Amino acid sequence: MKIYIVTGASSGIGEAIARKLILERHTVFCISRKRNESLIELASSIQTSLWYFETDLGKSGLIPGLMNEIFKLMDKDQISAISLINNAGIIEPVCPAGNYDNDELQQLIHVNLLAPMLLSNEFIKHTRELVIPRSIVNISSGAAASPYAGWGPYCSSKAGLEMFTRVLNLEQKQKPHPVRVLSIAPGIVDTPMQGRLRNTNDADFPMKPRFEQLYQHNLLSRPAEVAEKIINFIFCELPGDDEIIDLRKL
Ligand SMILES: NC(=O)c1ccc[n+]([C@@H]2O[C@H](COP(=O)([O-])OP(=O)(O)OC[C@H]3O[C@@H](n4cnc5c(N)ncnc54)[C@H](OP(=O)(O)O)[C@@H]3O)[C@@H](O)[C@H]2O)c1
Asked: Among 3, 40, 65, 185, which residue is least crowded by beta carbons within 10 Å?
């Protein structure tokens, strides 16, 4: 039995990843603030195991207890492979420094960076004794390496997540049964996050016209296509030696 823990399963890329995993009849643990009823119905209609946790990953104190609860539901003897997909993410605040709302800024760092670090820590702790393929996939962005005006918090959080990926790999490669840790930038994908970006103030995000044009010319990737590519990398052979993958560059 393959087990996947997917954060941000209520919409966009996370929903598409969870949907495909359910259809492949894997056991899936979903985490987001809102329940995704259509995933729950799908899993029940084909009788696959899906557990849904409505949790705000911005509340970092909840994360160790959440992971304890998730791992208590597993029969470790039955697991053939296990993966944590750190996909949940937010882009707000989108504006130049000097105008950030403190609470929004904290929430972004908590959801995009602190939560994946805490979840990874718990995942490694809970799976340490398992001699099976284990993997952590961090959903990154081109913004981890390229600065965009108005995206200071978002770019910084994704750059931090990529560095965390590199550090985890360095640590894990020394181990007899390492966890595979990947960072995958999905490209520009047609999700609610992109819709919110197109609604930001022009003055706050100078690159906005480019994102509008891509949308108008139907050049955004579809979440289902992106989900399929991400899932293919979780336990299979990688395109190169690097753990930092950009789907647009393949
Ligand atoms: N779309 C793109 O073009 C693009 C490009 C590069 C990278 N990405 C990355 O891809 C990932 C998914 O983005 P998306 O485009 O699919 O965005 P999305 O449609 O807005 O989905 C974001 C997901 O994150 C969850 N989330 C947000 N805040 C949360 C919180 N406090 N606690 C728990 N879950 C939370 C949301 O669920 P709830 O609201 O129900 O909590 C939702 O399921 C993100 O990491 C994003 O940075 C996207």
From this structure: 65
Whether the CA torsion 230, 135, 63, 94 is positive or negative: it is negative
Work out whether the CA dihedral 89, 94, 98, 103 comes out positive or negative. negative
Mutating to test ligand 1, I would choose from 10, 35, 244 the residue with most ligand atoms within 8 A of its C-beta, which is: 10
- 104 phi/psi in degrees, rounded to 5: -65, -40
Strand ranges in the chain using DSSP code E only, listed in sequence order? 2-7, 27-32, 50-54, 81-86, 134-139, 180-185, 244-246
Residue boundaries of the structural domains of the chain: 2-187+222-249
CA–CA separation, 138 and 209 (whole Å): 28
List pLDDT tens digits, range 120-179.
Answer: 999 999 999 999 999 999 999 999 999 999 999 999 999 999 999 999 999 999 999 999
3-state secondary structure of 47: coil
Q: What is the distance in A from the centroid of ligand 1 to the CA of 176?
A: 34
**Assigned token pair, 35:** 């329940």
Residue 100 annotated in active site: no
Give the predicted TM-score (pTM) of the model: 0.98
Query: What integer best gives the mean pLDDT of the chain?
Result: 97
For residue 177, the CA-to-ligand 1 centroid distance in Å is: 31
Tell me the CA–centroid distance for residue 234 and ligand 1, in Å.
Answer: 19
Q: CA triplet 64, 83, 2: central angle to 5 degrees?
A: 120
Residues 224, 94, 183, 130, CA torsion sign? negative
Q: Whose CA is nearest to atom 17 of ligand 1?
A: 193
Which residues are CB-neighbours of 16 under 8 A, at least 6 positions away?
A: 223, 224, 226, 227
Ligand 1 pocket check for 138: Cβ under 6 Å: no
